């Protein structure tokens, strides 16, 4: 008997959830705000950039093959890893 009552309560709760989903049109605004957060991560933009497909990133920094300056990010040029200043864009 008690179990039957629990099942009914569970089913009722499910119906209420569906109702909230329909009235969730306002929730669409929340989704818009989430999308606005994506552009803040400009890192993804750099990764997609086809002009810099051959670059190496060293968290501790590495010396440029041309000027010897220690930089975190170097690009491949003539089989050498050079810094952004030495890279011929
Ligand atoms: Zn350099």
From TrEMBL:
Residues 1-22 have a biased composition (Acidic residues). It holds the Pfam family DUF7573. Residues 51-89 form the DUF7573 domain. It comes from the Archaea. Residues 1-51 are annotated as: Disordered. This is DUF7573 domain-containing protein. It comes from Haloarcula japonica (strain ATCC 49778 / DSM 6131 / JCM 7785 / NBRC 101032 / NCIMB 13157 / TR-1).
């Amino acid at each position: 008997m008690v179990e039957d009552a629990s099942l009914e309560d569970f089913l009722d709760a499910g119906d209420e959830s569906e109702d909230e989903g329909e009235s969730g049109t306002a929730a669409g605004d929340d989704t818009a705000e989430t999308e606005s957060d994506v552009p803040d991560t400009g890192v993804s933009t750099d990764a997609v950039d086809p002009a810099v497909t051959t670059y190496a990133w060293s968290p501790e920094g590495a010396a440029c093959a041309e000027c010897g300056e220690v930089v975190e990010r170097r690009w491949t040029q003539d089989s050498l890893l050079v810094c952004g200043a030495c890279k011929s864009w």
